[in-house]
Amino acid sequence: MMDLNQQQHSLSALIVFENTMNKELVRSLHVYRFEDGNEKQVEREFLFKKRGSYVEMMATPIFKVKEFRVSDFFQGRVFGVWLSIFVFDAHFPPTLNHIPPLLLISGNAKLKSIPRLADDLKKVFQLTFQADELRSASQRALKEAGERDREHSPRFRRIVQDLNCLPDSDDMCECHANEEFEQCASGNMQRKRRAASEDVAKISLNDLVKYFDLPILEASRNLKVGLTVLKKKCREFGIPRWPHRKIKSLDSLIHELQDVGQQQKDDEVAVAVVTKRQEKLKEERESIERKPFMEIQTDTKKFRQDVFKRRHKARALKSQGSSSLPIQLL
């Protein structure tokens, strides 16, 4: 019987499952490789309480008994009542934005209460971050080589392309717009120097929060870093997607309710309902600023959809000369 505490070992694979019947139950399968080449599988089970700390429980092996191999697992596969939500294989590490927010220690402090899973998740993050760095370095090298080739080929127009963006996509426009140039006395255009690594490292989550209400391109300009650098910082903080659209959507609903409150200020009941809804939306906005990986609540999505429908009906009635419909507040 191999003891993990007594022998040198490395994390070879980690698969995390969520119980489809009770989402607070989470199971993990850890594969450790020892110096002599042997591997050991360890299954663990946890209770991810919505209120209170997470707890590790006794786990009866399930996957080991059924003799599953790591290659049999992929994200989204269901094994009985267990849904695979994350798969890590040291030979094929995923990108950082493929790690669920639930498993990011930077975004989920409760993971610290279950150190055996948290420690392995840290290893996954480090290995994945290193793989991302290698991919970025390779892309930069290819980009620089391509630019040198174009510079020596006057027949071709020099195009600056960020390899992190797909050609002819919306991101491509942002990437092009993000390239900043300055004009020299000779009239030639030169690209500005990149932000210093020390300055980039100093950017904190609080710095990003200040610009969540702006599009990511505008935020990168205010932070004086490139778009690619900002996206990398977001991944470091466990932000899979820039939350500007969510913040903007909530702000729009809050302002909409302010207008409704002014229109119905003589109706005390309606004003109370509007005020209650506004407070709820403001609290949700603050929650997203604290935890930008959070999604807009289902109740808010339904309310937003109702607002969109009533706006459409109001425009249709207005075109017919009728009065507009009030927004459904509840």
From TrEMBL:
<keyword id="KW-0175">Coiled coil</keyword>
<keyword id="KW-0804">Transcription</keyword>
<keyword id="KW-0539">Nucleus</keyword>
<dbReference type="InterPro" id="IPR044607">
    <property type="entry name" value="RKD-like"/>
</dbReference>
<dbReference type="InterPro" id="IPR003035">
    <property type="entry name" value="RWP-RK_dom"/>
</dbReference>
<keyword id="KW-0805">Transcription regulation</keyword>
<dbReference type="Pfam" id="PF02042">
    <property type="entry name" value="RWP-RK"/>
</dbReference>
<protein>
    <recommendedName>
        <fullName>RWP-RK domain-containing protein</fullName>
    </recommendedName>
</protein>
<dbReference type="GO" id="GO:0003700">
    <property type="term" value="F:DNA-binding transcription factor activity"/>
</dbReference>
<keyword id="KW-0238">DNA-binding</keyword>
<feature type="domain" description="RWP-RK">
    <location>
        <begin position="185"/>
        <end position="270"/>
    </location>
</feature>
<comment type="function">
    <text>Putative transcription factor.</text>
</comment>
<dbReference type="GO" id="GO:0003677">
    <property type="term" value="F:DNA binding"/>
</dbReference>
